[in-house]
Every structure is written in structure tokens, then in C-alpha cells.
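Is glutamine placement plausible here? Inputs below.
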Amino acid sequence: MFATKYIFVTGGVTSSLGKGIISASLAKLLQSRGYKVTISKLDPYINVDPGTLNPYEHGECYVTEDGAETDLDLGHYERFLNIPTSQANNVTTGMVYQSVINNERRGDYLGKTVQVIPHITDEIKRRIKYVAKINELDIVITEIGGTVGDIESLPYIESVRQLKWELGTSNCLVIHLTLVPYLATTGELKTKPTQHSVKVLQENGIQPDILVLRTEKSLSDDIRNKVALFCNVEYKSVIESINVSTIYEVPLLMKKERLDYVALQKLGLAPGKEPELIPWSQFVNKVKNPKQMVKIGLIGKYVELRDAYKSISEAFIHAGAMNECKVDLKFIHSESLEEGDVDEKLNELQGILVAPGFGNRGIKGKIIAAKYAREHNVPYLGICLGMQCSVIEFARNVLTMKDADSTEMNPKTPFPVIDLMEEQKGLIQKGGTMRLGAYSCKICKESNTFKAYNIIKFSERHRHRYEFNNKYLEDFEKAGMKAVGINPESGLVEIMEIPGHKWYVGVQFHPEYKSTVINPHPLYIRFVKASMQ
Ligand code: GLN
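Reply from A.M.:
I modeled the complex. C-alpha cells:
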């Protein structure tokens, strides 16, 4: 049997310390040492997947190639590792309970009382190991959502304890990420919260092997020694994670701190070759030292929470670096465009992106932004709902189809230029039922999209229920908005462009999901370039 090693990443003291980034950075280093590795995320909430969550609750919903709606941390994993994740990489409490309850209804437990231990923990362990089984991996890193001590994450912590016991400490490693706060009044870094949080883990039967300490000031030897002694870990296992200006610097810092080396030693694995991170460092350099600046507006309705548009913001960082340019992304609430002087609000922008979304709120402002970009020859990228808004706008203002709309917003519109997809009709269940994941797209050579991709056929990831209504295609094309990308199997319109415009592209898919550090997305690169000119 293939012997995979497991690394668990837990968090203590507060949430949002960057477990996802630490996991991704460690994975990146192990990958560059020659190991085959992936990362999974265990989420303690009861939703079966985050697809039904409002972005305000939990940030963006990230979509994988195989069409799973997952936690946004999977986006970080893909952007760092440059390999796709799948449904198996994200487990929620809802999923675990759903399987166990289905087993129970089938009668699989043969009259036993179904309990958290062993039934729920067995299902969690099965899912942790399943990722390794399908991919024959050397190392699986599993990030446990939430903070130790949360009631919700207890079954996961218990599963880790059991796995460590079953597989042995040389096959299973626990990395605990905590905060070392700095008290400005006394000018001191404080280790007590870390000590307490390690105690919570110990109470649950887990001795962490490595501690990663998030801090705003460099840790002295004294502090490292103190943490090592009080928390029962080796000195070399106390790793500093100091605040940095870009998350992409974290792998370089972790390399300096030898996090990967210590982890491999503890797992009894050969260190392999020294991690070679030249392209990565070059990328970080470009991010930190841009030669130019471009102001692009992101028009959305969840802008109060930046995480709601995580993949888009990251795609701009990748594309910016490729153009040696910093994208100054202005988050603009679409509702704020519904009144007042639009020109005043948008004229400082060199590019406009209208974001994905659902429902009526904020639609008016998105349509106004699409109109502004079209009329003022400002480069435009419409993503999913952003593409649909540009279609509605064009219908209303160029084709004079009064009250043209998407049937999502107005089911009674006389001109349903965006309409519910045939296969969506009659669906009642909301969870996991959209058109999800990778579908192919064929494009025409005379388009800005082709100039970006340089290939005729590719696939991109989707998450939508509505589509361009092909009944109106001729009207649109005659008036100057063209369907330049089509799904070859279904004829569904994937890309709309206005050839007479400087750069006006609307896509039904989400290119940002596939943008990585090593492979920045061509459409974003071209959009940034067009905005720079
Ligand atoms: N609400 C639109 C649809 O379902 C767009 C979805 C999106 O932007 N992801 O088709």
C-alpha cells in the first residue's frame, strides 16, 4: 500500500491568522523539494457546502474543475501549488453528517447506536485519507477550520488525535498556528495566549509538533526558548511568521525559517533537493516593485467584505505582476452608482470589472457601470453576472428593447435577453444544482479573447443558472455586440465582445478561478494591459 504522510494545521488564539496561507506555503516548499502533495480543508459548519452561503458570511465560494462549491482557501492552495483541487479536498460537518445519516438509514450500522465517536470521527478520517488514496500522494496537508476550543471543531480535533495514535507520530504531524501579540504600552511580545491555546490542544489529547507564531515583531531567542519550554516542543520547531505586505512572500519566509525541513525531519522523510523558488521570488519582486500603476474599479455588491472577491483580487495581482504594474483595485458598491453623478464616481478608472452575483439588489448600478464603460471606451471585463449586465445594458440602450432584462431579475420582461437555462427549469433544490465546474469554449480568431488565449478551444469554470438567450443573437450581432465564444456541445454563449470598442469583454465563466502565480490568467493579463494603455 502507498504510505502517505499526514500534516494537520490547526489554529489557536484568534481566527484569520492565515492557516490557509501557511498550509499553502508549506505545501509549496514540499512540492519544490520533489514531494507529491495536496491540501484539504475541513470546515466545521453544518452547511453541506458553502454554495448556499451568502458571501458576507464566509467570503467567496471557490469552484473546482469538477464543479464542487468549496471554501475560498482551496483557491489559495491552487494559486500556490498550480495544481487543481477537487470535491475531495473540502469536507464540511454537513457532508460528514449527511453520509453518516444516509448510512444509518440504509441500515449499515446493524442496530448500533450511532455516535460522534466512532461514527462521525470514522467518517472524518475516511475523508481525510480518501484524498491521498485517489491521488497516490506523498503528503497530505489538512487544514482544520476554526480555532481550537470551538465546540464545532471538536470532532475534527478528536479525529486527528485518533489518526496520530493509529498511524504513529512519524506519519502524522500537527502544526499549530497561534498569535503572539505585541503590547505597545510595554513594548513586549506576549506568549501567554499561545501557551493557553497549546494547553487546549493538549487537553484534547494532542501535543503539537511544530508551532508557527504569527507576530508583528521579530521573535527573540528568549521568546522562542520560552515558547519551546512552556509548550513542550523543540526549539527548532518554533517558527516565526512575521507580518508581510503580500501573502506571496510567506513561502520565502517559511523557507528561511526551515518549516519544510523541520516537518520532513519529523516525518522521517529525506529533505530532497533545496526548494528552488526562483520564478516565485521574481514574481514577488514584481509585486513589490511595480513600474506603473493602473486604477481598476470592481463593481460589486459585497464590497464591504474583500474576501467576497478573493479570486478576482488575486488574479489582478498575478496579471499586474506580468505587466510589471500594480493594479490599484477600487472596490465600488454597485448601489452607490444608482444615484448621483456617475461620471464623477467612475472617471478616475482606467478599467472597469463588473463582478459576479445573484439577485436583484445592486443590479441597476452594475448596468450603469457597463453602460459607462461602453460609452466612454473604458476597458471592460464582465464576469458571469457582469457579462449578463452588459448584455441587458446593450439591449436596452442600443437595441432600444425597453425593459429588457434577465428573467432572474424580472420574470415578466418583454425581452428576456438573459434567461434560465433549459436544464435548470423545474429544479427546486438550491444546493449544488447550478451549472458548475469546467465546460469548454470555442472562440473566433477575430476577437480580443483570442489575442489573450492564443488558442481556439479551452475550458473554464462556471457557476450560474442563467444564459444569453440565443433568440436575440442576430439582433445583437447586427448592432455590434458579438458572441465570440460558444460552448461547442450546447451552443451556450460563453463570451460577448464589442469589436468596435477598445476592449469590451463579457464572460459567462469565472477565469479568476484558474489564475495562479505560475500561470496568471491570459484574460486578466490582457484586460490589465488594455487598461494601462
Ligand atoms: N446570477 C447569475 C446566474 O445565475 C450569475 C451568476 C454568477 O455571477 N456567478 O446565471
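Short version: The CA atoms of residues 13 and 178 lie 6 Å apart.
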